[in-house]
TrEMBL record:
Residues 174-289 form the CdaR GGDEF-like domain. It comes from Haloechinothrix alba. Residues 336-393 form the PucR C-terminal helix-turn-helix domain. The keyword DNA-binding applies. It holds the Pfam family HTH_30. This is DNA-binding transcriptional regulator, PucR family. GO terms for molecular function: DNA binding. Keywords: DNA-binding. PANTHER family: CARBOHYDRATE DIACID REGULATOR (PTHR33744), PUCR FAMILY TRANSCRIPTIONAL REGULATOR (PTHR33744:SF7). The keyword DNA-binding applies. It comes from the Bacteria. Belongs to the CdaR family.
């Protein structure tokens, strides 16, 4: 029959005879097999896939060929068959095949059908219908694949956001459970990587915008982050590095740019995510006390806020001041503490301190230098002088030294 005959002679809407459509239906399995064989030949990664995943691709391809034949009958509804095939594919398949790979597979399948379909045509008109049809159908399948992957990415993104919020909340609450580390691993975080927690006020933008801003800054510095917006508070966990050394020094200031008004406070860098709750605890303590230092830089390390934290009742800050200032001085004898205390009491005037102690000014200089070596604090620096004064006061209070 001619390819231009009416529907009453057995033609489809796209002017194919009933016999041609029947032959296509019988050959659909063979066409799908030829497509998969071409995929194995031209795509090296395809042959490395597990057998069950290749079988899934064959199933989708067979469904696609069957869908094409149905599409020839009813272009409006037949795409549903192939769309469902994409949706019902095993979830593991997406681990092996991304959208770019899917486009390659569709291209090869389309080329195979372009090559073999014309042989089923009864005349030139049918040959043209089949050639144009497979091109149009391939385009529709490509759009369907893109939509499917986009929906999966959106769903996965929403799930990842919830998982990330759970991890950040767990670290802030002080959890170090194995489940928390497993969730972080599912997000691509290396549990053995160093971690630094930085906290501050969240900007006025909506949470997704805040998270996107932080991720963009971290990505440009090639650093992983976990981000949580908890009401008016923004919590960021920065992975890797020491943040204090080399090019890592710029990490905290760059991330702090994403915070809202007020200073951001960073806890100590911990060797792994399992200990990140310590960094979070100190950062939050610093955030509560940072108002006591109006000229504090942003970001500021929680370790630089020890005096304010101690005055706010943070026992950990008191312990660190005792451990890093008082204990080293006491182990060296009474002379250093006596000299340091006197120097601070007389307002940092070296000659007055020397006369008060009945020693030579050079002796005072030597002792102050030795105290600085032991504590890392220079008594002539106003900020360090405050730290030393608070530490010495705490050292004289019984409750900070444990039971007598």
């Amino acid at each position: 029959m001619s390819g231009n005959r009416a529907d009453q002679s057995g033609r489809s809407q796209l002017s194919l005879s009933a016999s041609t459509v029947h032959n296509l239906e019988r050959a659909s399995g063979d066409l799908a097999a030829k497509s998969v064989a071409a995929m194995e030949e031209h795509l090296p990664w395809f042959s490395r896939m597990p057998a069950d995943q290749r079988a899934s691709v064959l199933f989708i391809t067979q469904t696609g060929v069957a869908g094409f034949i149905g599409w020839l009958r009813d272009p409006a509804d037949a795409l549903k068959l192939t769309t469902e095939a994409f949706r019902e594919a095993p979830p593991e398949l997406s681990r092996w095949i991304n959208l770019r790979h899917t486009v390659h597979l569709i291209r090869i399948a389309t080329e195979v059908l372009e090559e073999h379909l014309p042989t089923f045509a009864a005349d030139e008109c049918e040959r043209r219908v089949l050639t144009e049809g497979i091109l149009r159908y391939g385009r529709e399948i490509a759009f369907t694949a893109a939509t499917t992957y986009a929906a999966a990415a959106e769903s996965r993104g929403a799930w990842d956001a919830r998982l990330e919020a759970l991890v950040v909340d767990g670290i802030v609450r002080g959890d170090a459970e194995e489940s928390l580390l497993s969730r972080a691993s599912a997000l691509g975080w290396d549990p053995d990587a160093a971690a630094t927690v930085i906290v501050g006020h969240a900007p006025a933008e909506d949470p997704p915008t805040i998270v996107s801003t932080v991720r963009g800054k971290a990505s440009r510095m090639d650093r992983p982050v976990l981000v949580g917006v908890q009401g008016s508070r923004l919590v960021v966990i920065i992975g890797g590095g020491t943040v204090r050394s080399g090019r890592d020094r710029e990490v905290l200031p760059r991330i702090a740019e994403a915070f809202g008004d007020g200073p951001a406070v960073a806890g100590p860098t911990m060797p792994s995510l399992a200990e990140a709750y310590i960094s979070a605890s100190e950062a939050l303590s610093g955030l509560r006390a940072v108002s006591g230092w109006p000229s504090a830089p942003s970001p500021v390390r929680a370790g630089d806020l020890l005096p304010e934290r101690a005055l706010a009742g943070d026992a950990e800050a008191e312990r660190q001041l005792i451990d890093t200032v008082v204990d080293p001085l006491e182990r060296s004898g009474t002379a250093l503490i006596e000299t340091l205390t006197t120097y601070l009491e007389v307002g940092g005037v070296l000659e007055v301190c020397a006369r008060t102690l009945f020693v030579h000014p050079n002796t005072v200089r030597y002792r102050l230098k030795r105290a600085a070596e032991l504590t890392g604090r220079d008594a002539s620096n106003p900020r360090d002088a405050l730290v030393l004064r608070i530490a010495l006061i705490l050292g004289r209070l019984p409750h900070t030294r444990g039971p007598v």
